[in-house]
Amino acid sequence: TSIVWCQEEPMNQGCWYSSRHHFQNVASKLNPNLYVKYAGRPSSAAPACGSPYLHAKQQAALIAQALQTEQV
Q1: Does residue 34 contact residue 1 with C-beta atoms inside 8 Å?
Q2: Is residue 47 part of a domain?
Q3: Residue 15 lies in a domain
Q4: Based on the structure, what is the number of domains in the chain?
Q5: What is the rounded CA–CA span in Å between residue 36 and residue 52?
Q6: pLDDT, mean of residues 3-7
Q7: What is the rounded distance in angstroms from the CA atom of residue 29 to the CA atom of residue 9?
Q8: Other CB atoms closer than 10 Å to residue 68's CB: what's the count?
């Protein structure tokens, strides 16, 4: 069983980077088999990719990842 954390910011920015261990700690106390997974953009030095085409592609990928569906 898993919980999915989805964010638009890259992995090394936003809440995930600084709080993932807190999320996992709480999840483990609720259920030892509960795992928190990340769905979102990969780590990046910039908060935005700068290309509307690439942004749309990344957005579709993170939504598919969060909902555990295949990317079109």
Answers
A1: yes
A2: yes
A3: yes
A4: 1
A5: 30
A6: 93
A7: 27
A8: 10
